[in-house]
């Protein structure tokens, strides 16, 4: 009985939460995104919103695949580090400086862009000469099918 009470007491002080997302196929990512861009991260900074830490990224847009052309865009990702405090969100992607990426973005309230489906809408790009290769997780690969090979206009 003491162990159960100790267990309950310990977890009563924890902020228990989780992230649950519906799986999106590649076709759904294309359809549901407001913007699809090829970009590189220029800088990032933590932002406190409603007692949660978010990370704001400033991206240099290399190519707009879907949506209007622009030179840069700011996006928000849940999680980040502010001083000695850290928020980690399952499925959230930590973007690395100057890496080339392809992002599927949705526009939220106030024109704030976020990655659609968290890590589902993030693809690491690897430029090799004149070619660009896409680094994909096994989960991302499973979303591809013969019907996913549509041209995005």
Description of the structure:
By secondary structure, the chain is an alpha+beta fold. It has three helices and nine strands. The chain has helices at 2-12, 26-32, 138-142, and strands spanning 35-49, 52-66, 72-78, 80-82, 85-87, 100-107, 113-115, 122-128, 131-135. Strands 1, 2, 3, 6, 7, 8 and 9 form a seven-stranded antiparallel beta sheet that branches. Strands 4-5 form a two-stranded antiparallel sheet. The longest helix has 11 residues, at 2-12.
Gyration radius, in Å: 18 Å
Percent range of helical residues: 10-25%
> Number of helical segments?
3
Distance between the termini: 63 Å
Give the helices and strands as they follow along the chain. Answer: HHEEEEEEEEEH
Q: Characterize the biggest β-sheet.
A: 7 strands, antiparallel
Strand content: 35-45%
- The assigned structural class equals alpha+beta
Low-pLDDT segments: 5-14, 145-153
Oligomeric composition of the shown chains = single chain
Cα shape: globular
What average pLDDT do the residues reach? 80
Please tally the β strands and state the result.
9
């Amino acid at each position: 009985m003491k162990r159960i009470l100790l267990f309950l007491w310990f977890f009563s002080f924890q902020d228990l939460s989780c992230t649950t997302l519906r799986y999106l196929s590649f076709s759904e990512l294309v359809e549901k995104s407001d913007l699809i861009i090829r970009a590189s991260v220029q800088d990032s900074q933590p932002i406190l919103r409603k007692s949660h830490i978010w990370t704001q990224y400033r991206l240099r847009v290399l190519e707009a695949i879907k949506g209007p052309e622009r030179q840069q865009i700011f996006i928000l990702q849940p999680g980040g580090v502010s001083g000695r405090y850290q928020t980690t969100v399952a499925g959230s992607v930590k973007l690395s400086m100057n890496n080339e990426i392809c992002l599927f973005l949705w526009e939220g309230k106030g024109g704030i862009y976020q990655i659609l489906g968290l890590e589902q809408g993030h693809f690491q790009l690897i430029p090799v000469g004149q070619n660009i290769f896409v680094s994909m997780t096994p989960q991302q690969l499973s979303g591809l099918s013969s019907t996913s090979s549509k041209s995005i206009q």
